[in-house]
Amino acid sequence: MSFLLFALTGIHGLGLLLLFIATLGKAWWVLPDGGTLNLWYDCEYLNSTHGWACTSTGDSPCLRAARGLLPAALLLSAASFGLFLWQLRGGAQGSLFIPAGGTQLLAALAALLGAGLYAARGGRPLEGGFGFCFALSWAAAALALGSGCAYLRLRKGA
User: Fold this and answer.
1) Nearest Cα to 57, choosing from 125, 113, 4?
2) Strand intervals (E) in the chain
3) According to a count of CB atoms within 10 Å of the terminal CB, is the N or C end of the chain lower?
4) What does the pLDDT look like over 15-44, one tens digit per residue?
């Protein structure tokens, strides 16, 4: 039973880390010249002025939805982890981890919707391809879905 708890904690932590990197990473879209775009701003360092020049990556409704859903998924997943630890410490023996599992399933749904909306109509240029942050968001959503389902089935032991 303790191995299952450690494994589930590791899967949840890995999903949380991947979601954090995907949300803040700079490679959601890779341009043909090797440049990358993220969800938030396209910034480049100017050597002439020793400053940064930042422009918005777009303002389409799907991109705004992805910008809202991915941080929401990150916060929900962190809250689910806190709920899991709280229930593990103070819950009654034999009780289910339903609040933690439900919150983690909501985080998975938010991550799936955010990545899916970005893939469908993300307000990105026509040239280029998806970057590693896009793949990380799908992997994090799958891990969140798996750990959320496992939380719903898991009972607190002795």
Assistant:
1) 125
2) 29-30, 36-37, 41-46, 51-56, 129-130
3) C
4) 999 999 999 888 888 888 877 778 877 666
